[in-house]
Each structure stands twice: as C-alpha cells, then as structure tokens.
Amino acid sequence: MNATVTQAGMTIDADFYDFVDQELLDGLSISSDSFWQGLASIVTKLSPKNHALLEKRDELQAQIDSYHVQNPNWNAEKYRTFLESIGYLLPEPQDFEITTEVSEPEIAHVAAPQLVVPVNNARFALNAANARWGSLYDALYGTDLISEEDGAEKGSKYNPVRGFKVMAYGRQLLDKILPLSTGSHIESTHYGIVNGVLIVTLNDSRQVQLASSTQLLGYQGPQHNPRVILFKHHGLHFEICIDHDDPIGKVDKAGIKDIILESALTTIMDCEDSVTAVDAEDKVLVYRNWLGLNKGSLKEQFLKGDQQVTRCLNGDREYISLTGEPIILSGRAMMFVRNVGHLMTTPAVFDADGNEVYEGILDAVVTSTAALHDLQGNSPYKNSKTASINIVKPKMHGPEEVAFTAELFDQVENMLGLPKNTIKMGIMDEERRTSVNLKACIEAAKARVVFINTGFLDRTGDEIHTSMLAGPVKPKEDIKTQPWISAYERQNVEVGLASGFKGRAQIGKGMWPKPDEMANMMNAKGAQLEAGANTAWVPSPTAATLHSIHYHEIDVQALQNTLLDHQSHCLDALLMPPLLQDDMPLSPSEIQAELDNNIQGILGYVVRWIDQGIGCSKVPDIFHVGLMEDRATLRISSQHIANWLEHQICTQEQVLATFVKMASVVDSQNSYDPNYVPMCTDGHPNSNSLAYQAAISLVLEGKQQPNGYTEPLLHYYRRLKKQTH
User: Which residues, in sequence order, are bridge partners of residue 329?
Assistant: First the structure.
C-alpha cells in the first residue's frame, strides 16, 4: 500500500499530498491547511448528495426495466406518461435565456473547430494547445484530401507534382475567402501593401485590390514586400506567408510558401474518457500536466526521426496594423478542462469514514486551483481573457445532476475566494435523461453555462442500456439512421439557440472518428455547421486546420439567425428506442458479422487500456481502418452485445468463441508493438491476460453495470495490472 498522510480528517496518498503542497499551491496565496480543510468541507457536504443522485439513477433504471417487462409492446404515449409519473421526464421550464455574463471570445463570438485530447499525454496536450494555427499546405500535402493520382504520390521525399496540387488548392481557397475585385489569386505574381491597401499584381501585370478592404488587418516585414499578410473572414484569422527563398516559395509565382489558418480556437484538455487514471499516481500525472499548461511550463522532449524535439507552448503572434500599431494574437487555443462525471471514486483521497472520495469532486477542486495560476498571471501566457475557469462536465443525468455540479462549483469558488460564476460549465448532452430534459438542464446552470454539445457515442450507449429490456436493438450502423438520432442532434441546437446561446455560448457536435480519412471528413463534417453548431470535435491538429475551411465556407453566425425561432417538437422521437422489428429478423451471418465487429473493437481498445494505460488511440477496426476510440465507443459495443445476449439474438457460447477468434486478429494487428502482450496463443486465450478478462467482463456483466458505464470494470482490471508490475 502507498504511504499516506492524514490531514483535515482525510487520508491522502503521500505522492498526491506532495504534489498539492509542493507544486499545485506553489505561487498561490493558499496555505496547505486551508486547501485541505476546504477540500474536506466540500467532501463532507456534497458526498451524500452525490451518492443520492447515483442511487436515483439506479432506482429510475429499475423502474424502467420493470415497465418494459410488464409492457412488451411499444406504445409511445403510454411510455411517455410512465416516464413523467416516475420523474424521469420533467415538465419543461418556461422560456428563458442564459445569464452567463462573460464568456471567452473564442466561445461566444467565433465559430471554429474544437480539439479534445487526453491531458495525461503531455505531447498531445501541447500539440492541441498549439493547434490554434495550422499550416494549410502541410495539412493538404500529408492527407488524402489531395489525391495521389497523376503522379501526386506522397512518397518519402517531396513530390513537386503533389506540391503543385497543394498550391492550386490554396489559391482556390483564397478566391473563396479573400476574393479580389477582379481576377483570381491563381493569377497572382506579387502581394504588397500601398497606403493601407493590398495590391495584388496578376500575371498580365494588372494590379487589383480586395473585393472587401476590411479583410486586411496587418502584416510582418516591409509593406511593399511583406513576409506575412494577416486577414480575417467569418471571424477567423489567416495568413499568406511569402518567402521567395523558401523551397516552396521559390517555385511559386508570387513567392507564397504557405497559408496559415486559425484553426482550433478552443481545445478540451480531457481528464475523462480519453484518460486512464485509476489511482493517485495517474491522477497526479493528469493534474500535473493541466497545472503545467496553466503555468506555461509544460514541456515534452521526444525523438522525431533521429532529431530530439522539445515541445512547449507557442508564444503569441505579432503583426503591424495598417495604422502602424502592434497587433498581438494568441498563439494558443483557449483551453477547457473536462472533469470526470459523478460516478467514480478515487483512492487518491479517503474521507473521514474511510471511503474513497468522489473523483468528480476532487477534479473540480484541483483543476480549478491549477487554473488560478492563469487567472493570477503566474504564466507568461494567458488562457482566459475573461478571468474564467471553463470546465466541461460529462455524463450528467438530468437537471438535478446539473444543479449539483453548479453547487459544487459554488463551493469551489468559495474555497478559492473567487467571485461567483467564475467557473463556467460545459454541459455534455450525452445521456438520455439529459437529452429529454435539456431545457431544464440548461436552466439549472443558466448563470454559468457556456457550452452544450451532442455526443452520439455515449448517447447511444445510454440509449441501449436504458432500454435494455425493451427488446433487441438494431445493428450499430442501423442505429445511426434511427429517428431519435436526428431528433437528438436537431433538438440540441434548437434548445441552445432558444436559450440565448448565440453570442454567449458554444453549441457543439461530435467527433470525426477516422483521422486518416480527411477527404471523407471534408465531405461530411460541414453538415454539422449547416445544422447550426458553432463548433465540432476533430481528432488532430491537422483535422482542425482542414475542418476550419468549413467555417469559412459557412457563415454560422448568419445561419443561426435563421434557426432562432425554429422548434421541431421531437420528444416522441427522442424516446423511441432503436429496436429490431419482428418482421425484419437478422440472418445468422449478419449476427456473426455484428459480433465480429463489436468484439474486435472491444478487444482492440481494452488491451491498450488495461495493459499500457492508453485511454485514447487510433485503433484499427476489423477492416484495418484506424478509428479514434475511447470509453464511449467501448460503452456502445459492450452494451450492444449485452442487449443481444439478454434477448437471445446470440448465445454466450457464440460470444466467447468470437472473443477467441477476434483476439487473434487484434494480436496480429498489434504485432509491431514491442510492448504488446498477446491475448491469445495457438487459438487459446492467454489465461494471464487481464485485458482479455476485462473485455469479456464488460460484455457478460454489461447489463449490471451502472448506466452501462465501462469505468468500474476498466479501473478494477487496470489496478490489478498495475499491481503485477
């Protein structure tokens, strides 16, 4: 057992205690005694409420299970009346608007991509923080958005044919977002600024100006021959970078070596689904990296090829305005931090009764304290422009749980001596009880809410678990096309806009899961903006740069104006579970194919989680397509098979046989990894593989897991794995 320290009646892991005293509080005017007394007070006051909320989840689920057993035939009106009678579905509040007084400009005023990264991975976290600005040329050259046809292969060396396609794409984009009064950027041979006006020389010697002179903001270098020219479109900045001596610039008629796009204006530093934090050691790493981001001190050294690289936070970007004044723009994304939900506890701290404290309570206290360093100027950089701490809170079930989070934030503000509503809240609309009561959820945090978004993956997992006894669900791909999905996505935007989010808060959409398929992303992800969202999640800085093009193509602010008064009244669709129809049975081959796909995905993700502590990674699916996986995708797959087992679509023997078969596939897919421990040998499970045991438990015990969450079992097996090292 780890060494412990006793303080304020609590028993605290010694390493965590030292982190708080020696690192977290260093530079703050908060004494160690007051910090631990403050935490103990919050734990004592709020733990019983947290526990009661979790008990209510279980009680509601038990009542819903009983209803489905007694009412095997679907009746929408009867079901809705039942949910109202048990307090699952609450009366909708009167119309209101949120009263959040100050939001970050990146949240309130500009539509742009959003990155989500595991904060325990310093390199990923720094890359995400620095992803506010991205090279269009790099993003195009390295992805499938530029085809490899006609001699434009990527290869190991620079391919000038591919480079020409990249430059042509860049010029075409400039014609869209920076139109000239006449002619095209494709014809340009020189860019210069004369008397505060951009003059573009074309290849026939004509000199033209911009169609809108207000887009030009500033420059670097001499005006007549600038190195960088700064523009703005739909609230997003971008640069034309010119260097005739650069390998790219010297083959460009105008010397353009790159176009830099303002990309991920916001990023979510995640302590939750993409992170494996099962004990005090893991929590210290999570908190230390978040602290380093707020102090501006986080660095990471790694090898890139044969070069050692040191990654740190980017500085601000400086330009000269057209009137000669300096322009300074942030070089970093505005950072949210996503805390964990209400469910889990952590052995980092035990309360006075010897119980592990709720991890969500500890997260709120520690991540807010770390953010004080930003608010108090203990960093060379600035994250919040409004003296706010922006926390995304996931997996809340209904308005009572949102109100509890608001109370928790109140208590943390009191503990840290912060003005009320300093801590802003992002509400993840990813559990069904939140979706069907979304307006009431927003009202419960209306003075501090700055963010809502849809999370299709967790929402689907909760949909399956909530309706576990209603009947067998459709295959996963078919679930995506069911009415509740479109109703869910539509309602989120409509309720957000009706609640006054425009100009105050973000309305977000979910992740693009295929980081290698950027061409498909560009074809699909614009639809999220067209639906009214002003941000959407992307899996990488490269994806953020490419997705930012959508925000130039679509004026989200103007589009939201057309949606302000639209209400589609889609509650009945939201409540309809995605059940298989009796007259459309699945064939044995269809059932087996679904099991193969689900179980391969479960094993591919769980083996890295348990054995290597990797909570989010690109995991090859059964067709060897790399997918970004985290606990939300695992929740769907495990609940899906648990549902089919419950309704005898498949047998336990069939499931276990599929686990053996798919373990061999996953082992083969990971054969390149020297740290990988195979789950199967000669067609037989490795009896020592805790990862394999965890994966099977997630399915066979899926029905019993609270709301279908995977965390309890993952934490249990990961702790066992760590104990064997």
Answer: 317
User: What's the number of domains the chain is made of?
Assistant: 3
Residue ranges of the chain with pLDDT lower than 50?
A: none
* Contact residues for 78 (Cβ-Cβ < 8 A; gap 6+): 71
Distances (CA, A) of 253 to 97, 190, 220: 53, 8, 20
- Per-residue pLDDT, 328: 98
Tokens standing for residue 615: 């909570």
Q: Domain for residue 550, yes or no?
A: yes
Residues 126/298, Cβ–Cβ less than 8 Å: yes
Q: In what order do the strands lie in the sheet with 317-321?
A: 133-135, 256-262, 236-242, 228-233, 216-220, 317-321, 326-329
CB under 8 Å to 126, separation ≥6 — which residues? 293, 298, 299, 300, 311, 312, 313
Q: Look up the CATH number of the domain holding residue 168.
A: 2.170.170.11
One domain, residues 693 and 642: yes
* Same domain, yes or no: 493 and 625: no
- What is the distance between the alpha carbons of residues 365 and 379, in angstroms, rounded to a whole number? 20
How far is Cα 114 from Cα 550, in angstroms, rounded to an integer?
A: 13
pLDDT at 355: 98
Is 15 inside any structural domain? no
**Structural domain boundaries, residue 209:** 134-262
* Whether 334 and 441 share a structural domain: yes
- The question of whether 338 is a catalytic residue gets the answer yes
- Is-catalytic flag, 635? no
Evaluate whether 230 touches 223 at the Cβ level (below 8 Å).
no
What CATH code is carried by the domain that includes residue 719? Answer: 1.20.1220.12
CA atoms within 13 A on the CB side of 125: 30
pLDDT at 475: 97
The pLDDT score that the predictor gives to residue 52 is: 98
The sign of the CA dihedral 695, 696, 701, 703 is positive
Q: Which of 630, 631, 635, 667 is catalytic?
A: 630
- The residue assigned the tokens 């999370």 is 455
pLDDT tens-place string over residues 532-578: 999 999 999 999 999 999 999 999 999 999 999 887 778 999 999 99
Check whether residue 97 and residue 195 sit in a common domain.
no
Residue 526: the pLDDT is 97
In a domain, 356, yes or no: yes
Rounded to 5 degrees, what angle do the CA atoms 317, 308, 243 make?
Answer: 40
Which of these is catalytic: 132, 338, 631, 635? 338
Buried b (16+ CB within 10 A) or exposed e, 490-500: bbbbbbbbbbb
Q: How far is CA 613 from CA 102, 265, 714, in A?
A: 38, 29, 10
Same domain, 153 and 213: yes
Sign of the Cα torsion 184, 186, 192, 196 reads: positive
13 located within any domain: no
Domain boundary among 243, 262, 281: 262
- Residue 267 and residue 265: Cα distance in Å, rounded? 7
525 & 391 share domain = yes
Contacts of 359 (CB under 8 A, 6+ apart): 283, 340, 344, 345, 346
Question: Are 299 and 446 in a shared domain?
Answer: yes
Q: How many helical (H) and strand (E) elements, i.e. helices and strands, does the chain have? A: 25, 28
Which of 262, 284, 315 terminates a domain? The answer is: 262
Specify whether 203 is located in the same domain as 306.
no
